[in-house]
Amino acid sequence: MLDDRIRAAMLHGPGRPDADGVSDYVTHLVAALDGIGVEVTPGPVRPDGERGLGQRGGVVVGPDTGVHRKRDADLGSRHDARPRRCCDGGSVTTNSAPTTAPTGLAGAHRRLPLPDVLRGVAILGTLATNVWLFATPGSEARFLTDATAISAASVGTAEPVAAVVEGVFRFLANGKFLALLTILFGVGLAIQHRSAVDRGRSWPGGYGWRALLLFVEGTLHFVLVFAFDVLMGYAVVALLVAWLLAHAERVQRVAMYAAGALHVALMALLTLALAPAPPGAPADPAVVAADARVFTAGSWADQVAFRLDNWLALRAEPIVSFGLLVFLFLLGVRLFRAGAFDPDVRGRALRRRLLVVGLGAGLPLNAATTLAGPEFFLFDRYVCAPVLALGYLGMVGVLLDRVRRPGPVTAGLTAVGRTALSCYVAQNVLCVLVAYGWGLGLAHAWQDASPWWVLGLWATVGLTLAGGARWCLRRYGQGPLEALQKAALRRLPAS
Asked: What are the residue boundaries of the DUF418 domain, all occurrences included (predicted)?
């Protein structure tokens, strides 16, 4: 129920304002709100000539509104997260978390839903690429003899329908979701930077400890679980980008475009250098068979030893694509600052533009490099795929804009996104247990059932992650690795 004084302001004030009565109406309402301890700050003039109330920390009247109650320093009052109706029929929503910023700050920022959904899509999308490595006899070892094993050019069946299904699935996944995940990591870094600035903290401050912890987590994941870990590379790039965020935007912009240009030049040179023997060229069958036995019949310790023996070759991807990672991190920062994830008119316009440009340019570019053969594998995965990833970002955003009431799909993706670290590691652990020889060994036993059992594995693991993530959030509010990470950071200085 509205406070009596607000109701009185609405009943005895000038009523529903027209263009001439806005000032008196606002005056009555502000006086009533001020009487019950609600902080009100002037808002922008809308296109129709009316002025809303408030920005961060205030009250806005209208459909795109938010209410932030003034924090009581003595009583430690919390936000009321229940939606309210305002006098002109627009909804008034509140932050769902208590304000922890000190007095005088603009106020807490509401968590944006789109990055969580996109992160969930990216996590399950990276599995859509990696699942083919898990399910192929030889698994991680095959990458050393055929780097194109995850591309659409390496369809492993001659049956026409199965070949088309597998080819399309690989085409839509290869490199695209890795690029999307990288962009979102940059978005997360931008959010942390903004939070530090809002609280008056130095930047990067203790972020180095976060990056170091991420590198340790990635190293353990690489050695113990899966050779194609992304966390190690992200940790190194995050340190560089965190340092860049402490500098002027012009410096960041120059670094972004320089990294992108150098990366494209490197991919062109490597493509020319590898032309006589492209990544998909036939390898020595005896070597392939010996490496394959490590994953079809070897023990877990044998696989750990294999990764350590071949660590440099297996870590080639983040080294070769370092420039791309820097570019995509900074692109994520720029998209976030431009409002591409905001639930407003500008954000929706940017998402539509990303959808049109990303899909319009990305689909033909990726189709061309895929059909050109293994000679263009590097361009396909590390140059053209990020373009289509922007289209995916825009497409998911546009679809989410049109969802009036989130359903189980949105809830599942959001849960996976909010527990991204746990889900990323868990999906690889589950696939190892199902596919490798020391587990169920289905990669070898069911190799003739590809691609159907592989698609089933991807869907089963995805549903398991979504259900498990939702349970973890309901029960504990976070994923297990997120909790472990926070506990470790609390014990580190200035983190």
From this structure: 335-487
